[in-house]
Amino acid sequence: MSIGYAIMFWYGVLHAFGPDHLTAIADFSIGKSRAKTLWITLAFAVGHGISLFIFAKILQHIDLSEEILAYGDVISSSVILLIGIYLLFMAATDRIQLGVHSHRGKEHIHIWFGKAHDHDDADFEKRTASALTIGALMGIGGVRGMLVTLSAIAHNEVNLWMVLAFTLGVMLVFMIFGYLISLVNDNLLISKRNVRLAFATAGTVSMLVGSQMLV
After folding, report:
1. pTM of this prediction?
2. 172-181, pLDDT tens digit by residue?
3. How far are the Cα atoms of 17, 28, 32, 162 from residue 116, in angstroms, in the given order?
4. Could you give the 3-state DSSP secondary structure of residue 144?
5. Are strands 106-113 and 96-103 parallel, antiparallel or unpaired?
6. With the CA atoms of 202, 207, 209 and 210 taken in that order, what torsion angle do they form, in degrees rounded to the nearest 10?
7. Which residues have C-beta within 8 Å of that of residue 105, sequence separation ≥ 6?
8. What is the pLDDT of residues 117-140, one digit of tens each?
């Protein structure tokens, strides 16, 4: 069975490279500090794994047609599309702000949404919860692929350790990609023009990826 766990881990790695997943990570991580970026990517991976586990368990006992399962892909694609529309709206209406602040003698750049400044940890908590929720919603779209893999190694029998192996594979890629995004944040997002351009680019890519997946 150890080979089966290795297969699930590798499947998680391959699964994470999907353009919809990387796009979602970029959307949530742009403009955040390195620690917050890595935490958000972790939340996304955990939400993704939990969702796949729950729906895979359900599908073990309920035989659903391919047409119904295909709606999972529609949901994940729609999520990416809507995020793209939202980011483009925020960039176009000048609702992405940048300011330089000093906390405990250390100066740093802070990026936030809205017309007024709100440096509140509640905003980060909301983003973490959103990443967890979006990861769970997009996990629905990966159920079919997971069941195909499971059928080859465990006759569709899903257990928590398999999902953990899959989630670790996903997490590895997400954390590396999140780290790369944090480098962009640290080195390029130093002016409001760059920030708006980054969010507009992320929104455009999200819309393209989501639209292409829906076709």
Report:
1. 0.75
2. 998 899 889 8
3. 36, 20, 18, 46
4. helix
5. antiparallel
6. 130
7. none
8. 555 555 667 777 888 888 887 777
